[in-house]
Design goal:
Layout: H1 3-8, E1 14-22, E2 27-45, E3 55-65, E4 70-75, E5 79-83
Antiparallel strand pairs: 1-2, 1-5, 2-3, 3-4
């Protein structure tokens, strides 16, 4: 994930999110296209002993897909955000 992209995310923007999960012998990839509803850093319960304040902060991007489905993406180093320009927004 590029930090500069998260600074530019505003409600109403069209985006394509590509997320990857590396495996030993392959990489699982998924893409989500939709409109930004909200971007926030939110805390969650500690994932491991000793997390600062017993909380872990995660970047969360909520988008609305074209069919109306709401998706919350947890952004990490394997996430790529493409902000679509008006000419690219079809389909």
């Amino acid at each position: 994930m590029t930090v500069s992209h998260t600074e530019k995310l505003v409600p109403g923007q069209r985006v394509v999110i590509t997320q990857q999960i590396p495996q030993r012998d392959e990489v699982w990839t998924s893409q989500i296209r939709g409109t930004v509803e909200r971007y926030e850093m939110a805390k969650t319960g500690a994932w491991f002993a000793g997390a600062k304040g017993e909380k872990l902060w995660l970047d969360r991007l909520t988008i609305r897909k074209d069919d109306g489905e709401i998706v919350v993406c947890i952004l990490d180093g394997y996430s790529h955000i493409e902000i679509l320009h008006p000419a690219d927004q079809a389909g």
